[in-house]
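Entry 14: structure prediction run for Replication-associated recombination protein A. Input pasted below.
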Amino acid sequence: MISPLLSRSLLLTLEPLSDEDVRGVLRRALTEERGLNGAVTLPEDAEAHLLRIAGGDARRALTALEAGAGAALAKGEDTLTLETLEESVDRAAVAYDRDGDQHYDVASALIKSIRGSDVDAALHYLARMIVAGEDPRFIARRLMISASEDIGLADSGALPTAVAAAQAVAMVGFPEAALILSHATIALALAPKSNAATTAIGAALADVREGRAGPVPAHLRDGHYKGAAKLGHAQGYIYPHDVPGAVAAQQYLPDELASRRYYEPTRYGGEARYADILEWVRGRLAGEADQGS
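Run finished. Output tokens:
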């Protein structure tokens, strides 16, 4: 909208209702005279299914309640059971408690299926989460973690794909967000796998937490302040861009960790290239003869 029109308009932002808001609407509809006037009761499991169907939309919840109540009364029943509700709205109830074990079990199964490269299983668990009304932002966060934890540099495009998916679902929302999450899930499941980045930072963190830190080598310390030279700071530092290949033979780790190796790349996917580069770089840092570029 152009600014002049926008300044003369009243803008209303409509946000999804919370489950508690929708629950209140349903319970009033069950008892009030303008609603069902106590003609049927709604058990807890059927109510939970209505909340999942609603997805924060009270109109959708009321439409499903009306359809289910009509089906129950047609059967001569005064209780709207979960079975009758499923039949009337043509939507199966998924065993999934967003605040309980099912939430974590299905999320875990999704990530482990991606890690195991079983794209069909990954899509199955993704579908269960979507149908159960899981927050798409939660799913997207798990995919971003998986992209670094289980794929890493074997496919450097995995993390940007997952991040793009997270940004997209935040703007789009369901039902279209299902397409975006499917896109990212398939890409991650079929990507080459490496946990080298995960184990690398794990080993580095373990050393630091166990006190293996040591002083920063003098030639790497800040030499821009007055008196730094007298302390030997920045003295002897070799500027990498001044040497062929831009990798200078000098020590970067503290003395007690000088021989430590954290990152050990695999030969899977794109990480094979990093393995070749790393072998050459480590040789140059150690002052070995030039092994080619």
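Notes: The first helix runs from residue 3 to 7. Will compare against the previous run tomorrow.
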